[in-house]
Specification:
Order of helices and strands: HHHHHHEHEHEHEEHEHEHEHEEHEE
Largest sheet: 6 strands, parallel
Shape: elongated
Number of strands: 12
Structural class: alpha/beta
Helix content: 40-55%
Oligomer: single chain
Strand content: 5-15%
Distance between the termini: 103 Å
Number of helices: 14
């Protein structure tokens, strides 16, 4: 015997009611709003979309019904129909670093000023997670996916980025590489970068013109685009000032405080002669400063020091750090602006390089 046959009178109807649910235990639908407002479903849809004229009285009734029923528009359905603007997705390696956090802040500000939701995701350097996030954003009809941070521009990188770009383009989205190596022509991608090489040239030239002929360079990991560009800027300045390149002064490592500390300490213990340090990042400069002080050397009296990035703490150090300012927030704003301008049909540049600026403070003095 079935439950309906065995139950009390009215059991069948009760079962149907339980399966359907009542207004109190299920989300309100557009049909509920229409019934409460006494209008058609089409009128509710037009009122909420704001793309069709309705009378003030009708709009008031519809909005009162929306409020009383706590109706929430199905944004995913609207996205599929092309009636809602897609979000801006930022995919970062690490959201805790000050540089990348400023890129995200700039992107969020620009997206918000244009009425767009921004989503920030972290990969922790996991390429599989990056693959999954790009696919998810494609399925969510993101207006743009902005990948932020350096990368090694090998064949695998170019294949992955080209695959992302083509898949997003087919979905009506746009891939933006922010601070990442560009792709060959013909790939549907926007690139927003900054002048690593020029900034490193300025920093090294400032030390050389201050009379420092032996500059210890604490560069980044070889192979990464930003690190290689900064090393090239260092070499350019040496050549431009007729200063021989010394392999013993040219070091590589992570852009971390610990790396800066260990490399500077090692150079000092090995008896490497230098009167100035050019650190590939402000975090590295902070480590170098600690190692110099540990050795009884004062900055800038005994050794001059220059960093790269101009993160917030640079101006608060003692002495205040001379460094290269990178327009990180402007990078984020530009990435969003170019992606959204292309979305609405404006002609935008596909490759933009923002300038860097040497900020002179108190950590450099003339040699001798």
């Amino acid at each position: 015997m079935t439950d309906e046959e065995e139950g009390p009178p009215g059991g069948r109807e009760a079962k149907k009611s339980k399966r359907k649910g009542s207004a109190a235990d299920r989300p309100s639908t557009i049909r509920d709003v229409a019934a409460k407002a006494g209008v058609s479903v089409a009128t509710v849809s037009r009122t909420l979309a704001g793309d069709y004229p309705v009378s003030a009285e009708t709009r008031a009734r519809v909005m009162a019904a929306v409020d009383s029923l706590h109706y929430v528009v199905n944004v995913h359905a609207k996205a599929l129909s092309g009636r809602v603007a897609g979000p801006i997705a930022l995919v970062l390696k690490d959201i805790t670093g000050p540089s990348l956090a400023h890129v995200a802040a700039g992107a969020e500000e620009e997206a918000g000023s244009r009425g767009r939701l921004s989503l920030v995701c972290s990969t922790k350097g996991d390429t599989k997670r990056e693959d999954d996030l790009v696919q998810l954003m494609r399925e969510q009809h993101a207006a743009a996916v902005i990948l932020v941070g350096g990368a090694v521009p090998d064949d695998a990188y170019h294949r992955r980025m080209a695959s992302y770009a083509k898949a997003l383009d087919c979905a009506g989205s746009r891939l933006v590489l922010c601070g990442r190596p560009p792709l060959p022509k013909g790939v549907p991608v926007t690139v927003v970068d900054y002048d690593n090489r020029g900034g490193a040239f300025q920093a090294t030239a400032h030390l050389l013109t201050s009379g420092h002929q032996r500059v210890l360079f604490l560069g980044g990991t070889p192979g990464f685009s930003s690190a290689d560009e900064r090393r090239l800027g260092y070499h350019d300045a040496l050549r431009a000032h007729g200063t021989p390149h010394d392999e013993g002064l040219d070091t590589s490592g992570d852009y971390t405080r610990k790396s800066g500390y260990l490399r500077t300490r090692e150079a000092l213990r090995a008896g490497v002669e230098f009167t100035a340090v050019f650190a590939g990042s402000d975090a590295v400069a902070l480590g170098a400063l600690a190692a110099l002080r540990e050795a009884g050397l004062r900055v800038p009296r005994d050794v001059s020091l220059v960093g790269f990035d101009d993160v917030p703490f640079a101006a608060d150090l003692t002495p205040a750090l001379t460094t290269v300012r990178v327009p990180y927030e402007e990078l984020g704003r530009t990435a969003v602006r170019l992606a959204l301008e292309r979305e609405v049909g404006f002609t935008s540049d596909d490759h933009v390089v923002l300038s860097t600026q040497l900020v002179i403070r108190d950590s450099v003095r003339r040699a001798g």
